[in-house]
């Protein structure tokens, strides 16, 4: 019958596995946190209009199990924040990688909370937040770091100015586009992102 589901098509749909990636699950949980949690960076007005964050499609080429060139002298650096405060980080090491055939280099910072990788890419102020995005590299049992740009996120100050966020150091401003992770947030758009 035209336009009507039969019992066999319903059964087939019911048993067709849904392929949801771990990244898609993570993103859905993050959207739920932003929409409902009291510690969301969104204002109550933003929460009412929120329809989810905007992301680049998953990009496996921008997920690295990286050997880091650890600095012999891990000096402390002072990083300015968006509110004029200062935060201290240690310059831990250098991460070299290729993006569409172009070499890129970033400095990984460390603090008592773990590794921190702020960066600005060539899409800043166009498709990504102008002040940069963040990553939290994870140590792996083999001594490498997991650096997954699909998990790149906007600092909370991208959503409203009541937050104070570390500014990206000059050395972490890339000339290449990182088409992974969160995109710019547009609260006024019809989609809510």
Describe this structure in words.
There is one protein chain. The chain has 193 residues and is an alpha+beta fold. The protein has a domain of 119 residues. Helix content is 16%, strand content 26%. It has 3 helices and 9 strands, in the order H-H-H-E-E-E-E-E-E-E-E-E. The strands form 2 sheets. Strands 2, 3, 4, 5, 6 and 7 form a 6-stranded antiparallel beta sheet that branches. Strand 5 and strand 6 form a beta hairpin. The longest helix has 15 residues. The radius of gyration is 20 Å and the shape is globular. The N and C termini lie far apart (40 Å).
Describe, in short, the structure shown.
Helices cover 16% and strands 26% of the residues. It is an alpha+beta fold and 193 residues long.
Q: Radius of gyration over alpha carbons?
A: 20 Å
Relative helix content: 10-25%
Task: Find the structural class using helix and strand composition.
Answer: alpha+beta
Beta-strand percent range: 25-35%
- Counted by DSSP, the helix tally is 3
Task: Supply the key terms.
193 residues; alpha+beta; three-stranded antiparallel sheet; 9 strands
Describe the secondary-structure layout:
Blueprint: H1 7-15, H2 22-36, H3 44-49, E1 63-66, E2 69-70, E3 76-80, E4 86-99, E5 102-111, E6 114-119, E7 133-135, E8 138-139, E9 145-148
Antiparallel strand pairs: 1-9, 2-4, 3-4, 4-5, 5-6, 6-7, 8-9
